[in-house]
Amino acid sequence: MKLLVCCASGMSSSLLVQKMRDEVKRQQLNGIKIGSCSRDQLKKYIDEADVILIAPQLHFFEQQINDLASLHHTRVINISMDDYGSLNVENIIYNALMDDSPPPAPIAEEEEISRIEALQTKLYPLAKKIAANRSLNSISRAFITTMPVTVIGSLLTLIKCLPITAYTDYLSSTGLTSILDLGTSASIDIISLYTVFFISYHLVVSYDLSGHGAGLISLSCFFLITGRTDGSYSTRFLGSNGLFAAVFIGLLCGYLYVFIIKRNWKIKLPSNIPHQVLSSFEAIIPSFIIISVCLSITAVMKLTIYHDLHTLIYSTIQSNLMKFMGNNLLSYIFFQFITNILWFFGLHGGNIVGAVTNPIYTPLALENLAAFQAGETMPNIINSQFGKLFIHGGVGSMLSLSILMLLFSKSQKYRAFGKLSLPTCLFFINEPLLFGVPVVLNPIFLIPLLFVTPILAVITYFVTKIGLLPIVTGAQVPWTTPPIIYGLLQGSWRLALWEVVTIVLGSFLWYPFFAMADKQAFEEENNPCHN
Prior knowledge:
By secondary structure, the protein is mainly alpha-helical.
């Protein structure tokens, strides 16, 4: 039997899978193979699975996963929050091997759930719709897919701009500076090209169609609306300045491609034609129609004061949003609250909210990186890399909570969770706390989950505003980068030191609520009625 654990990004599930494999060996359950994947990879691996085990953060996708699994005659089981968070692999394996697994155990007492039931009833369906929105999902996945390019470009910039005079002089004298510049120009400076391709690609794939043709068409249309001057393309809108146009063109071309293919508008050739040739001919009519639409848009734009679509979108939408949100603490805190509330109900707030904020905050970070590269003052305090200065261990800055559990727990329960979660929280994997303690749907932890990171955001913003901290360079680094190392990669030992300070501050903010929960757990463990 083959078991496949599916979670949001495939990170937390990989930890669970390793423990499941160890348990299978211990019980000598021969013939059982276990793997993990992200939700985006599920279609690729579902043929190989007999049972799909869904992580709690994907329970709101249960119907979509069931629909997919029914086509492959694969059984689907929801892993309970308790089992997932505490890595109760014995129970998970037992349920997977049973024909009908028992329903998940309740997370909180009935009276506790009733306190948040009204809010959950209103919020959950809305969040579920947002999380399942094809457009937002396509945008989010496109930014995730392009991350390797932005990370490499950022690292090359940091290597080139290390603040050591002798080192930078050596790079200039040997010509290595121009070589490193090529890495940046081939990655960050043309990020919109990668983004427009993958938005169309992921959108079309969500309709179970091949996305490569749509991605190529959208890339062509992006160049079309960019236009050429004196026989060459301007690079102004190929980088971060063109991201909003990339989103628009990617979605437009993707939806048009699906519309045309679903209506079977294509050149029909004999079935004995090789598949590669057949696919190329089938894309001709969609390509002609979509490119014609974009040509029409380009022609109309030439009659306006903006002259092209890029200038219209950048001038009226993107630049204004970036100005408004780049140093607007209130809007940043608003998105923090929404992210935290969604996580309280077990929904992946980062992915849901990120689909909206990534097109805004990523260009702000890349603006900072360009200024850093040019030796100029970095303009944007708030950008996509700002939050990592005070959000440690995932949503709620739970690295602080895991440290409290490890050092100050009186109860066996929380001491065990401290030992389990501290290594994973260092790399921003906090599912053991979210679903094991649990923090999700736990009224005791609602207030710190909602308010810890907004409070730390306000403090971090103002110490940066008055000059005690430098502005982050905006370098795109892997989201699993541990604190202190992250601050150093953002250009300053002071940022690394501030991360230590915010971990301590977060511990003070979490402590009253942790102490309350720990006292309750300790009393239960020492109550004869519970022994």
